Amino acid sequence: METITSRSNPLCVHLRKLASSRSYREETGEFLCDSPKLLREAAQWGASITALLCTPGAELPRELEGRVPRTAEVSGSVMRSVSPMETPQGVVFSCRAPSYGLPDRLEPDSRGRLRLLVLDGVQDPGNVGTILRTADAFGARSVLLPGCADLNNPKTLRAGMGVHFRSPIYRCTLEELTVLLKEAGLPLYGAALRDDTADVREADLRRCAIAVGSEGRGLSAEVLAACGRTIRIPMEPRCESLNAASAASVLLWEAARGDL
Question: Which of 66, 136, 226, 251 has the maximum number of C-beta atoms within 10 A of its C-beta?
């Protein structure tokens, strides 16, 4: 393991730019993670780790021996200059980003389930990461349409708690998704209000795609027009709506509770 003492070391500069710039992440095809928990998940699920910085005494997973092209020990001050966290946890590392492209066709998982959660314009990275983690917990695959927060933003990765390494996540246009859903025979339901809206408790969500809109405006007109029906979450009349992460959690639980 090498030792890096300067904040201006090229590797530190590279990792710092991965944390701060979406365009740089897209240019390099890498992203930055910043916790031992994410490192353990990356090691467990075979992520392609490209570089790792740690402070003295940090515990590194044994599975990573010989698998990381570059590993360096740094001081606490150097770590603080690289990590996007206010209080770094002693480890930062970079990974190769997957393509997140749609498969040629949608196939059920090993338990025969085929459910998708579609995010339309959800822009808060923490919300997106939380939703991805919830979808993974309830056996749904996640699809992000244009306008959503960057999947590789450090805040998205942190909130996802390793879901990026272990669960299928797709990024596509509405047109691409619509074609794939039609070929798979999956209906698209939208979390929104219109004349055909049904109580979520009365809808069959065992095999479908569920669309959740942005925190401020809900589903876009284009996504709403593509939905075969809409569903609503019953709540007290004085409450207008839930935020995107809360709404997605309720809908995913309703969809999954029959097979958990």
Answer: 251
Contacts of 169 (CB under 8 A, 6+ apart): 98, 100, 132, 141, 142, 143, 144, 151, 163
Q: How many CB atoms lie within 10 A of CB 260?
A: 8
Closest CA to 19 of 150, 121, 122, 124: 150
pLDDT score recorded for residue 259? 78
Pairing of strands 49-54, 91-96: antiparallel
Per-residue pLDDT, 180 = 96
- What is residue 91's three-state secondary structure? strand
Is the pTM higher than 0.85?
Answer: yes
Considering only CA atoms, which of 166, 178, 212 is closest in space to residue 106? 178
DSSP state of 199: E
Compute the 3-state secondary structure of the chain and give helix, strand, coil in percent, each to the nearest 5: 35, 20, 45
Residue 105 has a pLDDT of: 93
> 54 φ, ψ to 5°?
-145, 155
**∠ CA 131-35-91 to the nearest 5 degrees?**
155
